[in-house]
Amino acid sequence: LEARGRWSPGQGLQWQGTLNRLEGTFPAFTLRQSRPSHLEGTREGARVDLFLEGLQRKGLSPEGQLRPSASVKLGGTLPFSPTGPLSLRAEGSMDLGDLKTIADGLLDVDEGGLLHGLRPEGRGDFNLLAHGSLAEPKLQGSLDVEHASLRIGEYENIRDLGLHVQFRDRTIAIPAERPLTGTLNQGRLTAQGEVTWKPGGLDRYELGAKLAGFQLQDPPDLQGLIMQGDLEATLRGDEEGGLLKGTLETGRLSYQADLKLYDLLVNSALADSASFSTKDPNDPLDRIALDLEVRMARPWELDTNLAKLEGRPDGAFRVMGTLAN
Predict the structure, then answer these.
(1) Which of 24, 64, 129, 236 is the most exposed place for a label (fewest CB within 10 A)?
(2) Strand segments (E) across 199-224
């Protein structure tokens, strides 16, 4: 940075300068200035006009170069104090994983929170204005994503993700007229709703989703299960926890496996023992309760070497627990 200025009794400190090199290093990528930038300001803050490029370090291009992952223009006023007025606009496109890394740092996202477990892949186009102050930031603008994917923790990822997000101060909205779309377990997913954030992560959220024509086969720890159907649910909650409630309509529900009675007895005993519990107390999905009403279009089937059964529930049948268990 090269700067020069003057101070006068009437106007105070006035300065201007040139920023020739700026570089930030993150775990998987580098964000650096692509060309020199002009700066000016006072003792309160600086007016910036920066052009940045992102480069991923995880893999080289066929030419042996770092892979480009972002092209961003930053312009506006950046205060020197946490409470000074902030007005900084960011326009461009960026790898979603890199963008989330920056957002986690800016929002001071807790490691045990639900936001921390989100792992997006793809590229997003954005036009965002950060305003308020560094201590109490707010966002205004939009983010658009096409043909991306999203994984929550170690669970099945959403593929072919399309998303239009509107930022309104502390509210992140997915409007009903432009819902989230994607593919999950071979079913077509649509969702809309609002999330309110605060420094540290989520404050409140209320989302509605439909998953049409999904097919779930051989999920972890339940090899042999086949489920087909439609799901309609709402997810409401806050930083302490939430509730996923809705209706599951199954066209097929069956379980086929060769079972060993000894293994079943041992596994059941171990599951009841706290010393052998595999439950992760820090899993944010364990703080989201599950309450689904199940409607069966045809009887369920159990086909094992120990028993062969089929039937239909008499009255209401509900699945309850948490998203993690």
Answers:
(1) 64
(2) 201-217
Question: Chain centroid to CA 298: how far?
Answer: 36
Distance, in Å, from the CA atom of 123 to the CA atom of 149, rounded to the nearest integer, reads 10
pLDDT greater at residue 259 or residue 146: 146
For residues 267-285, b (16+ Cβ closer than 10 Å) or e, as one string?
Answer: eeeeeeeeeeeeeeeebbb
Q: Which residues contact 47 (CB under 8 A, 6 or more apart)?
A: 39, 40, 41, 76, 77, 78
Residue showing tokens 């996923």? 244
Distance separating alpha carbons of residues 276 and 288, to the nearest angstrom: 23
Per the structure block, which two tokens stand in for 219? 């999920």
* CB proximity list for 90: less than 8 A, separation 6 or greater: 72, 73, 74, 126, 127, 128, 129, 130
Among 81, 97, 72, which Cα is nearest to 22's?
A: 72
Integer CA distances (angstroms), 304 to 121, 208, 228, 251, 260, in order:
40, 37, 20, 20, 10
pLDDT of amino acid 266:
60
Average pLDDT on 169-181 reads 95
What's the CA gap between 308 and 100, in Å, rounded? 49
Question: What is the rounded CA–CA span in Å between residue 291 and residue 233?
Answer: 9
Most distant CA atoms of the chain, gap in Å: 92
Q: Are 73 and 51 in contact (CB under 8 A)?
A: yes
Give tens-digit pLDDT for 261-302: 656 566 665 555 544 445 555 667 788 899 999 888 888 787
